[in-house]
Amino acid sequence: xxxxxxxxxxxxxxxxxxxxxxxxxxxxxxxxxxxxxxxxxxxxxxxxxxxxxxxxxxxxxxxxxxxxxxxxxxxxxxxxxxxxxxxxxxxxxxxxxxxxxxxxxxxxxxxxxxxxxxxxxxxxxxxxxxxxxxxxxxxxxxxxxxxxxxxxxxxxxxxxxxxxxxxxxxxxxxxxxxxxxxxxxxxxxxxxxxxxxxxxxxxxxxxxxxxxxxxxxxxxxxxxxxx
Length: 227
Prior knowledge:
By secondary structure, this protein is mainly α. The protein contains 9 helices and no strands. It has helices at residues 5-28, 34-79, 81-94, 99-110, 113-124, 134-149, 154-161, 168-192, 197-226. Helix 2 crosses helix 3 (81-94). The protein starts with a helix and ends with a helix. The mean pLDDT is 81.
């Protein structure tokens, strides 16, 4: 199966942010620490599945929209050939082509139906066919969400397994692990989009850290208000 790294990164960042937000919110509210594992895993799978389904629906809808517009352009070229040829001429006239060169460009493009359709799709409608499979895209999102999203829960899982009370020390390890996860995911994203790895890592860390701080503050505030 072909991996779609943009969907994987998207799911990874969201998974780490939302799961750690749950951890931070529960700790801020001083709720029984065992609830962290319950809410954390509930969020992990429910949110991950929701994101995957949403990504699938969005990708599928876009592909269907592009296919519909392509059929429309095919019909127009077959039935309104002169008008469509004039649209090609106007597109390239605005790009600076003129006289014989303009006519040569129009002739070459309109001599091949596929090139003609693709040119109209891109230049007139701003649409490009996406070869991404919606199913593969949604799977990549789900895997990224769960693979990275589980990281904030690992310290609590270890403490629970060996019988140590789930306390603030586990939360500290969770903070350290999620900081590393945010930074690493950001660096991977930076490598893919060919940007500075350090800056990309810091940017992702700041975004994820901001979400965690908000969650912890809200949880702590509600604890003071209700408690």
